[in-house]
Description:
Layout: H1 2-24, E1 29-30, E2 33-40, E3 46-53, E4 60-65, E5 73-79, E6 93-97, E7 104-108, E8 114-120, E9 127-128
Parallel strand pairs: 5-7
Antiparallel strand pairs: 1-5, 2-3, 3-6, 4-5, 7-8, 8-9
Amino acid sequence: MQKRKTLVALIFFIVLILSAYFIGSGFVVRNDVVLTHYEINADGTEITLHTSLMSPMGFIRGYKNMGGGVKPHYLKFYATFGGVHSEWGAKSEYTLPLAKDVTEIYFSRPDGGYALVLQKDAETGEWVYPNKQQ
Length: 134
């Protein structure tokens, strides 16, 4: 009887650890997200960001706007639930609302800061990659 209780407790502990890993992995911040391309809707109120990872391992499931929904947008991306190779909830396209006064979009980086990935050209009003703006 004692061996059975010990075995049940061990199985419960293993299931608990695996569950914590499965769920906890979805709260890992991915700082290696890159913007591959983007699309602005017809009335300019939304932008669809197409993303990828610099690393060949893992997937992203979502983002949090650390700018509080006001300009500029500071986006922090999160890994999928289920571990490194899990595709559960994986996405690569994210739609972000754009107010008329929003002029910059940043992605989080490993150093704890943010990198500018898109900005609105002051003269033309077009969204451009920062290194292409003149």
